[in-house]
Structures are given as structure tokens and as C-alpha cells.
Amino acid sequence: MSALQRPEPRPGVLDIHAYVPGKSHAPGAARAFKLSSNETPLGPSPKAMAAYRAVAEHLQDYPDGAASDLREAIGRAFGLDPARIVCGAGSDDLLNLLARAYLRDGDEAIHTTHGFLVYPIATLGTGAKPVVAPEKNYTADVDAILGAVTARTKIVFLANPNNPTGTYVSFDEVKRLHRALPPHVLLVLDAAYAEYVRRTDYEAGIELVATSENTVMCRTFSKVHGLAALRLGWLYGPAHVVDAINRIRGPFNVNAPAIAAGIAAIEDTAHVERSVVHNTRWLAWLTEEIGKLGLAVTPSAANFVLIHFPQKKGRAAKDADAFLTKRGLILRRVEAYKLPNALRMSVGTEEANRLVVAALREFMAHGAEGKTPPPPEPASEGDEW
Ligand SMILES: Cc1ncc(COP(=O)(O)O)c(C=O)c1O
Fold this sequence. Notes:
The chain is α/β, with parallel strands linked by helices. Helices cover 35% and strands 16% of the residues. The chain has twelve helices and 15 strands. It has helices spanning 46-54, 68-78, 90-102, 118-124, 142-148, 171-180, 206-211, 239-248, 256-267, 269-292, 317-326, 350-366, and strands at residues 33-34, 85-88, 108-112, 129-133, 135-136, 139-140, 153-159, 186-190, 215-220, 233-236, 296-298, 304-308, 329-330, 332-334, 339-346. Strands 2-10-9-8-7-3-4 form a seven-stranded mixed beta sheet, sandwiched between helices. Strands 11-12-15-14 form a four-stranded antiparallel beta sheet, covered by helices on one side. Strands 1-13 form a two-stranded parallel ribbon. The chain is globular. The chain starts with 32 loop residues before the first strand and ends in a 19-residue tail after the last helix. Residues 377-385 have low confidence and may be disordered. The structure holds pyridoxal-5'-phosphate. Residues 38, 90-92, 116, 159, 163, 190, 192, 220, 222, 228, 233 line the site of pyridoxal-5'-phosphate.
């Protein structure tokens, strides 16, 4: 059968490199520590787990398609009007819906060199063209983004902080970007890691959304709330954007267990605080200890670090990845993000963090063969998490 005799996807779809998630397995290792998807090492709030379990009694019922209780809980937590919130099956869902609503063939959507991979995927899926704005020091560069704007630009996607670099753009810079964008361009501020940021010059973007007609902020329950498995995210946007997204989203795009767990999670502020305190402590520790091994670590404001390896046989990122995986320590290769010489590591439990640093020390000293055989010892009872 010739290609013309069978259904063909729209132009752009077959240009997509399908997203490859972080590895979950370390074959042969006695224990595995998954540090490849920026999940929280503390897990979800026990209250969220209880709320999730309670819904098991009612699985025959459709969820509330408007996710009203959840939007109200988010509204209370952040002081936002629930009518300007849309929930999605992860923020991935919302990023794709924004692309579908605002991009058409021939349009352009800008993201930065090492920006989150869902942006080009969502863009190409609509027939539009992803345009890459260069970064400076692994950080989004507002002038480069503005330089990439053309008459065809319809969306600017900015992950702040960005994954996989962990770098962020100050709120002043975000506002400067917004001021200089033509008013018909939608600025999508993807603040998936906002809760972790401990910087006085950072804002996730609520104020900008509240005071403009062309800014949207996306958030997720997958990171600090530990609900990645449930697929839950939300956006806060101008009323006209909320209206457009509500017209095209799946009528039940958020499931009932996710709604119930999400409400409990956002109300358990003590659990969020514990997660952030853990992250702040171990992010600093990892950055310092890995730096002492002679490896460059990009300063991160999020819950992961980007570790740069020398381009030296036996000491390269792919050698380190194989070395660590054999020991059950699963980090993320990031070639797809144009970072072939780096690995991304999520901040883990104390035990996992210490094991990675010890393994990297051995790797740097002795190379891929190491000195001691894998795998890591089982945890002792005194371990913190
Ligand atoms: C920058 C960024 N945005 C969005 C997401 C997607 O999150 P969700 O699980 O809500 O789809 C991620 C997940 O890794 C991310 O890193």
C-alpha cells in the first residue's frame, strides 16, 4: 500500500521525537533508587493517600468534570479566583491544550535551548514550528527570546525554573519579557518547580497573570505534592484563555482519585514544608559535595541538579550513567535536551544522596571499572527516610 492510500498524520507529527521518560530500573542491582524523574523522595501527604483510597468505594461514578472542589482548594491556597483555574491530567495535558488552542499550521512557538521537551512536542503536534531561543549559562535569556519573536509567533513557553537545568529567571526579567512581547503572543510560565525555589527575586507569575491578558501560569501536583502517578496539574489564566481551554479539554480530563488526593495534598501545608526543607538542605549538600569531586554542577533552584562530566573516555556522562546504574542509582541522561555531557539527578532521600556522592567519588577516582563491586548495601535502620 502506498503512503497516500493510508491515513496520514498532519505535517509535524512525524517530526516529533516521542518523549522518553527517565529510566525506572537498574537491572541486576539489589536495590534501586530512582532519581531520574524529579519525583519527591518524601512521597505524598498521608492525607492525600487516605483521600485517594476513599474514592475506591465510588469508582462507578464519573468525576466532577469541572473539578470545582479542587479549583476552590487551589484558589484558597493561593488567593486566586477558582473561575480562572483549569485543572488537567498533569501539566502536560494543559501545555498540549494551550498549544492546540493557540497554534495552527505555520505559527511559531518559542522555547529555549534546553527547555522542557514537551514544548516542541506540543508545538509540532499542532502543525506549528518550534523556534529555539539560545540560552546563556544554561539559563533562559530574555533578549534572545525577544530576538526570536516574529509575526508568526503565538506562544512563548518558559519553564521557570527550567528542567533539566534547574536555572531560573528573576521576576523582573519575566516582566521585562512580558512587556516587550506583542499582546497577541501568549506567555506560558511553566512553574512546575515553583514551591522549591528559595530566591527573593523569584515569582511563579501569579501577579503577571492577574494583571495581563496574555500570560498563563501552569503548575503541577507531580513534584512537591508527590502525586505524579495520578496526573494532576492546573493553570491560572485570563478569563478568555480559561474559556478557550475549557471548550477543548476532555470533559472529564481529571479523574476522581486525583481530585480527592489533590485537595488533601494542597491543604497539607506541613507536608509541603517538610518536602521543601528536605530539598533545600540536600540540594545545597549535593551541589557542594559533587562540586568537590571536580564536577561542575549548574546552580539549581529546583529539586534536581545538572551534573557536567568531562568529555574524557571512561569519565564521560554515559560512563557515569552505566557506573551508577549498576549500583542501583538511576539518574537521567539528557542528550535529548542537547546536554550529552551531563546527567540530571533528582534530590533523593539522605541515603540515596549519600550513595550517589560516594559512587561518583569512586567513579572520578577509579573510572568506569570502580574499585568495589556494586550493588549498594541495604539501608540501616537509622536512615532518615
Ligand atoms: C518544566 C516541567 N513542566 C511540566 C512538567 C510536567 O508535569 P506533569 O507531571 O504535571 O505533567 C514537568 C515534569 O517533569 C516539568 O519538568
